[in-house]
């Protein structure tokens, strides 16, 4: 049983992260608000590349910068919620479909607000949040839905592969045994 879990948990995490990333990427290109975000990230990257070129930095630094941006966003939005949910689920032996789908979905959807709150704590940005236009608020709501769905898809994939039989089994007489289904 332990060897099975040792194989299923990493496999489930890898596939859940990959599917969540692909879903988020496709959804980001399909959703107009997502395209705005991707366009903004592209402009930031191009400005950084231009600044590096003006300083005479080698071209390899551009690839490193793009890798850092993609890696950081992937860790925060796709990897962390699924990993945290899987760790808690395995430790608590949770097998609930609702846990593995809802927890990463909510955590993924909250990531931008948590990052914004940490960055803007005590600043004027909090007061400015109420003055954003209705279009900006609608875009943020659609992006939150996209992130929520991405987390839900990731959680579902993990649950389907590894979460349905989480934990090591029941402890009986001080020994960890194989789970037994009750007989009628």
Percentage of residues assigned to helices? over 70%
Low-confidence stretches: none
Largest sheet: 2 strands, antiparallel
Amino-to-carboxy terminus distance: 24 Å
The whole-number mean of residue pLDDT values reads: 80
Physical arrangement of strands within the biggest beta sheet:
1-2
Sum up the structure in keywords:
184 residues; mainly alpha; two-stranded antiparallel sheet; 6 helices; 78% helix; 2% strand
Q: What is the secondary structure topology, with strand pairs?
A:
Elements: H1 2-30, H2 32-55, H3 60-92, H4 97-120, H5 124-128, H6 134-161, E1 171-172, E2 175-176
Antiparallel strand pairs: 1-2
Helix pairs in contact: 1-2, 1-3, 1-6, 2-3, 3-4, 3-6, 4-6
Structure description:
- With 184 residues, this protein is mainly α.
- The protein has six helices and two strands, in the order H-H-H-H-H-H-E-E.
- It has a domain at 2-30 and 75-169.
Concise synopsis of the structure shown:
Strand 1 and strand 2 form a beta hairpin.
């Amino acid at each position: 049983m332990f060897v099975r879990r040792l194989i299923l948990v990493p496999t489930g995490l890898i596939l859940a992260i990959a599917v969540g990333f692909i879903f988020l990427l496709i959804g980001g290109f399909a959703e107009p608000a997502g395209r705005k975000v991707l366009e903004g990230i592209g402009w930031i990257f191009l400005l950084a590349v231009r600044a590096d070129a003006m300083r005479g930095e080698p071209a390899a630094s551009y690839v490193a910068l793009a890798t850092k941006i993609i890696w950081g966003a992937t860790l925060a939005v796709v990897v962390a919620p699924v990993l945290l949910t899987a760790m808690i689920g395995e430790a608590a032996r949770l097998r609930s479909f609702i846990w593995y789908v809802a927890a990463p979905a909510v955590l993924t959807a909250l990531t931008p607000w948590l990052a914004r709150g940490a960055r803007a704590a005590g600043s004027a940005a909090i007061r400015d949040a109420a003055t954003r236009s209705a279009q900006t608020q609608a875009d943020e709501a659609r992006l939150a839905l996209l992130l929520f769905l991405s987390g839900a898809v990731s959680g579902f994939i993990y649950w389907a592969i590894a979460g349905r039989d989480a934990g090591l089994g029941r402890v009986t007489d001080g020994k960890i045994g194989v789970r037994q289904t009750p007989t009628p």
